[in-house]
Write a structure and sequence with these properties.
- The chain is built from 13 helices and eight strands.
- It has 255 residues and is an alpha/beta fold.
- The protein has a four-stranded parallel beta sheet, sandwiched between helices. A four-stranded parallel beta sheet has the order 6-5-7-8, with helices on both faces.
- The radius of gyration is 18 Å and the shape is globular.
- This is (Fe-S)-binding protein.
- It comes from Streptomyces fungicidicus.
C-alpha cells in the first residue's frame, strides 16, 4: 500500500523520532511511505482556540497534499490531529470553504487514520514483529479514545510485542490534563489532573509510559521529570518500530 505520512507540528519540531519510527515500521511491513514536503499544520490549535476561519488555508493545504488518488491511506502518529482531520476539517469546509474544498476534505477524510487504526483496521495486523523487553503502561489519549474511538487497538498491538511486560494503568481513561491551550488557560486544573495521572503511572512501576499522542506524552513526561520518577515516556510508534536486530535503547530517566 502507498501510505502518506503526516508529521504533525509537534512531531516535526519536538518529537521527530515518533514520525521516523512510523515510517520505519510501515516500511518494514512492506508498504511504501510517501512524505509530501508541502505539508503544514492541520489547524487543530486554531479551531480549538475558537479561530475557525483562520485555518481554512491549512485545511485546504492538507487536502491538496494528500488528495492524490495514488495515496491510498494517510497516517499520523497523533490521535488529536487525526481527529481534527476527520471531524473539524469538514466543519470548517462547510462553514467557510468552497465546493472544491468540501470535495477535497471529503476525499482525504475517508483515508486518514491514526497509527493503531491503520495497522489493525486497514492493514489487518496486530503483531508487527516488535521487541521491547521493558515494563510498559499505556495511557489512552482523549482524542483517540473519545473522538476516534480506537478502543483497545493500541493495546492489541502492545500485547503482541515480544518480551514486553505490559501493565494496566489505573483510571487509564482519565484525561492527563493537557488539552493543548487548556493547560495554559486553566493551569491549576491541568496541574491537578496531571498530578493524579502521575500517581497512577508511577504506581505501576513501569519503565515506560506510552501513548499515541506526543502532546500528552510531553505533558506527562514533563511531570515525571519534575518529580524524578524514573519513568520515561515513549510514543507507541517507537515501541512498535523496535526489533531484536534494531532495538530501541532507553535513555536514563530522571530520578
Amino acid at each position: 500500500m502507498r501510505i502518506g505520512l503526516f508529521a504533525t507540528c509537534l512531531g516535526d519540531t519536538l518529537y521527530p523520532d515518533a514520525v521516523k519510527s512510523t515510517a520505519v515500521l510501515l516500511a518494514r511491513l512492506g508498504h511504501e511511505v510517501l512524505f509530501p514536503p508541502g505539508q503544514t499544520c492541520c489547524g487543530q490549535m486554531h479551531v480549538n482556540t475558537g479561530y475557525q476561519r483562520e485555518p481554512v488555508p491549512l485545511v485546504r493545504n492538507y487536502a491538496e497534499q494528500f488528495g492524490d488518488a495514488s495515496i491510498e491511506a494517510v497516517v499520523m502518529p497523533s490521535g488529536s490531529c487525526a481527529g481534527s482531520v476527520r471531524h473539524q476539517h469538514e466543519i470548517i469546509a462547510e462553514r467557510y470553504g468552497d465546493a472544491a474544498l468540501r470535495s477535497g476534505v471529503a476525499t482525504v477524510k475517508a483515508k486518514t487514520y491514526e497509527l493503531s487504526e491503520l495497522l489493525v483496521d486497514v492493514l489487518d495486523v496486530t503483531d508487527v514483529g516488535a521487541y521491547f523487553p521493558h515494563r510498559v503502561t499505556y495511557h489512552p489519549t482523549c482524542h483517540s479514545l473519545r473522538m476516534l474511538r480506537v478502543g483497545d487497538k493500541p493495546l492489541k498491538l502492545l500485547r503482541a510485542v515480544d518480551a514486553i511486560d505490559l501493565v494496566e494503568l489505573p483510571e487509564a481513561d482519565a484525561c492527563c490534563g493537557f488539552g493543548g491551550t487548556f493547560a495554559l488557560k486553566n493551569a491549576d486544573t491541568s496541574s491537578a489532573m496531571l498530578k493524579d495521572k502521575l500517581a497512577h503511572v508511577t504506581g505501576t512501576g513501569a519503565d515506560v509510559c506510552t501513548a499515541g499522542d506526543s502532546s500528552c506524552l510531553m505533558h506527562i513526561g514533563g511531570g515525571l521529570s519534575r518529580i524524578k520518577a524514573g519513568t520515561r515516556t515513549l510514543h507507541l510508534a517507537q515501541i512498535l518500530a523496535s526489533t531484536r536486530t534494531a532495538p530501541h535503547v532507553l535513555t536514563e530517566a530522571a530520578r
